[in-house]
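Deliverable D2.4 — example input (structure tokens):
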């Protein structure tokens, strides 16, 4: 009997799944509600993949063994509802790809910090000489990497949307960096549903596996300690006297397990802020569990440059620092950014609101922000939230305009910080496009 997979969405995960599915002998049909780029169509033609765009034809999907749903497509869309009603398994790309590899998987999720933690973890393992690749939401899709070359280790950055559609996927080491309200528009504005989605990273783990989590996050800690799990739990951040803990003492990361206690000096660690220290604790713990020496871990952390679009220094012009934090697409990420500012800050904020509650930012805005520049098509929610606690607010419709106004407002030794707290899709293709436009506008000053 011939195997058939239907792929909804022709983006990174859809294209990667098509490549892997063809390699594994599947008949492949890709369906995208939008327009598929010509380069992707050419790739599908060369692979012998059937495709359609600007529509979903249910009759062409009913004989599928699997439906791979790209993470950007909501469960509530009519085509997904129809497919579920005829009981065809709807799975995510990470679920499909995991069927075709025996590698050790490290899965990293969380509302903030997952990209930096994944990049740090990959760097440490790579520096230690491991056969490792970085994939998922950063780099290539997991499916594409599995299709192209088999590796011994995969470090995967994983979103809640990808975890929603797993069945058997189980990382050997799962990491949850934190849980704060994000993407609530996809979860009916229910934080508990979003939290449960993140916890699915643990749902298929066994007693041989590890779940690392941020012990400083009270809601996450409470949820993990109250759930039933077979995996070994390991906290990082606080010093709770549990069996497995990673904490800071005298400028060193201490990693304690039942069998070992390892100390890694962080005196010269280049990334600033408590959030980056937590990311380093998580990455160090993963490496330690995989038997990487503390010397290699320390050396890798000292040479780690940070993720693009995450508190990325752009330029210093007339003693004004311009900082690109375009990847801060939720309120908690902005909290970390503002917390790390030590000088008066002109804050560029705005975009597509995802159900944000800005109240937690009020003390930091009062203390650190001298002006707010709104950058979005609809800014009223931001204006309502902050007009009573900031002296100057300006609305703008383009990045160039926002940066020019910021330059006029900022004075010597100030910061100009792009940290939007929102998705980018009203004025930009994605957060990378937004960050790149910011950097370009700064360079043109």
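Example output (designed residues):
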């Amino acid at each position: 009997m011939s195997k058939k997979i239907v792929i909804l969405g022709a983006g990174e995960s859809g294209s990667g799944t098509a490549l892997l599915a063809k390699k594994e002998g599947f008949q492949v049909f890709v369906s995208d509600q939008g327009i598929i780029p010509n380069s992707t169509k050419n790739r599908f033609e060369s692979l012998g993949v059937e495709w359609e765009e600007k529509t979903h034809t249910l009759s062409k999907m009913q004989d599928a063994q699997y439906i791979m749903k790209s993470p950007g497509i909501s469960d509530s869309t009519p085509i997904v509802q129809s497919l579920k009603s005829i009981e065809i398994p709807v799975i995510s790309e990470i679920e499909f790809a995991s069927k075709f590899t025996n590698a050790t998987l490290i899965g990293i999720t969380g509302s903030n910090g997952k990209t930096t933690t994944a990049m740090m973890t990959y760097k440490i393992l790579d520096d230690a000489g491991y056969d490792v690749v970085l994939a998922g939401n950063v780099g290539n899709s997991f499916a594409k990497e599995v299709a192209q070359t088999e590796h011994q280790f995969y470090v995967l950055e994983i979103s809640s949307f990808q975890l929603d559609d797993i069945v058997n996927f189980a990382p050997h080491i799962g990491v949850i960096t934190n849980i704060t309200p994000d993407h609530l528009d996809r979860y009916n504005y229910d934080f508990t549903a979003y939290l449960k989605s993140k916890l699915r990273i643990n749902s298929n783990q066994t007693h041989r596996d590890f779940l690392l989590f941020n012990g400083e996050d009270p809601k996450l800690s409470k949820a993990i300690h109250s759930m039933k799990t077979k995996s070994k739990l390991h906290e990082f951040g606080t010093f709770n006297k549990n069996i497995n803990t990673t904490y800071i003492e005298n400028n060193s990361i201490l990693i304690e397990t039942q069998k070992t206690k390892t100390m890694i000096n962080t005196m010269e660690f280049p990334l600033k802020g408590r959030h980056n220290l937590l990311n380093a604790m998580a990455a160090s713990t993963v490496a330690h569990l995989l038997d990487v020496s503390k010397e290699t871990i320390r050396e890798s952390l000292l040479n780690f440059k940070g993720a693009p679009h995450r508190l990325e220094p752009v330029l210093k012009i007339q003693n004004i620092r311009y900082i690109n934090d375009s990847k801060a697409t939720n309120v908690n990420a902005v909290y970390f950014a503002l917390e790390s500012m030590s000088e008066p800050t002109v804050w560029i904020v705005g975009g597509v609101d995802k159900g944000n509650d800005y109240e937690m930012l009020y003390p930091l805005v009062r203390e650190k922000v001298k002006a707010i520049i709104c950058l979005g098509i609809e800014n009223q929610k931001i204006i309502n939230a902050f007009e009573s606690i900031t002296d100057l607010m300006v609305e703008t419709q383009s990045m160039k305009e926002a940066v020019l106004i910021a330059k006029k407002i900022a004075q010597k030794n100030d910061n100009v910080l792009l940290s939007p707290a929102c998705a980018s899709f009203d004025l930009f293709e994605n957060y990378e496009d937004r960050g790149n436009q910011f950097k370009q506008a700064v360079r043109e000053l």
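The mean pLDDT is 93.
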